[in-house]
Amino acid sequence: MKKLIQLVFLLTCAFASKAQVTYLDVHEKVSTYPKVEWVRGTPVTQFDKNKIYIIELWATWCKPCIKSMPHMNQLYTKYKDRIEFIGQDVWEDDIEKVKQFLVDNKDIISYPIAYAGKREESDFEKNWIKPSGTVGIPRTFIVQNNTIMWITNPFSLYEEHLQLLLENKFTEEAAEAIVKKHKL
């Protein structure tokens, strides 16, 4: 009986501590988009459970981010009628710099853009970047059915992933298998 009580206590503590931890990872439910300033496109404030969202974190000074933009733009061009794409600018203090970057690079980035604002003050930083453990960009979040389905690098996102999402057949295992296939 004593062992049963200890087991119940340990399980209760485990569940209670999990509920108190604030983190953002695969399989986490999300309903609201952090407060950001929308530079281009229709603002998203709430996630629609019937939509798929691709959220790409980037900055104007980030060379890998800029390198991934043509790829993301191709995916956006092909799937924009079925999937919501958001280019989420992060870790910058100057929205005018971001706006000018978009003008100067309109051929490689045409999808909707949101500006998070100053790093330490940003709602996006507080509610997505820190809780997800994101320490570098570019970074891509996939949301479907108000659930984070996958967190990846935009270079590892392929049309096959988007097709699986559209067919409601997306799994982490299937996503990783696609990445592995493309790396061979």
TrEMBL record:
From the Swiss-Prot or TrEMBL record, what is one GO molecular function term?
Answer: isomerase activity
Disulfide bond among the record's keywords? yes
Q: Which GO terms describe its biological process?
A: cytochrome complex assembly
Q: Which PROSITE patterns does this entry report, sorted A to Z? A: THIOREDOXIN_2
The record's SUPFAM superfamilies line, in alphabetical order, gives: Thioredoxin-like
Entries under Pfam families matching the protein: AhpC-TSA
- Superkingdom of this entry's organism? Bacteria
Q: Where is the signal peptide?
A: 1-19
Query: InterPro entries this protein is in?
Result: AhpC/TSA, Thioredoxin-like_sf, Thioredoxin_domain, Thioredoxin_ResA/DsbE_sf
- Cell division as UniProt keyword: no
Q: Where is the Thioredoxin domain?
A: 24-171
Localization per record = Cell envelope
Primary location recorded for the protein, binned into one broad class: other
Q: Name one GO cellular component term.
A: cell envelope
Please identify the protein, giving its name as recorded: Thiol-disulfide isomerase/thioredoxin
Species in which this protein is naturally found: Chitinophaga skermanii
